[in-house]
Amino acid sequence: MSTIYIPTPLRRLTNKQSRVQVEAATVREALQALDEAFPGIGERLLDANGEVKRFINVFVNDDNIHTLQGLDTPLNPNDKISIVPAMAGGTVKA
Predict the structure, then answer these.
(1) Residue 90 domain-assigned (yes or no)
(2) Which of 16, 25, 72, 84 is the most exposed place for a label (fewest CB within 10 A)?
(3) CA dist., res. 22 & res. 25, Å (int)
């Protein structure tokens, strides 16, 4: 089973779980399984076209899926999927 690491802002949707294991052949299937287990999390991650929202990054192990095969990136049973929301901020004044 692949492990999906849930960022803190989304843990309220996963009953405060920081990791969820899913059985999936691709990243798309993994995110679908996550949404089936925790309804509503999918709409936080995917846009109306079913693509990862632009301010969300998804990694398989250490590689961003945009540099792989996107949502069709194949998964191995021990892969780690990290969901990383973009950080917003401004300039820091010294």
Answers:
(1) no
(2) 16
(3) 10
Residue 37 neighbours by CB under 8 Å, 6+ apart: 14, 20, 22
Residue ranges of the chain whose pLDDT lies below 50? 90, 94
Structural domain containing residue 64: 2-85
- Does residue 37 form part of some domain? yes
3-class state of residue 17 by DSSP:
coil
Any domain includes 93: no
Nearest-angstrom CA–CA distance, 8 and 17: 9
φ, ψ at 10 (rounded to 5°): -100, -5
Token pair for residue 5? 């690491």
Q: What is the CATH number of the domain that holds 31?
A: 3.10.20.30
Report helix, strand or coil for 56.
strand
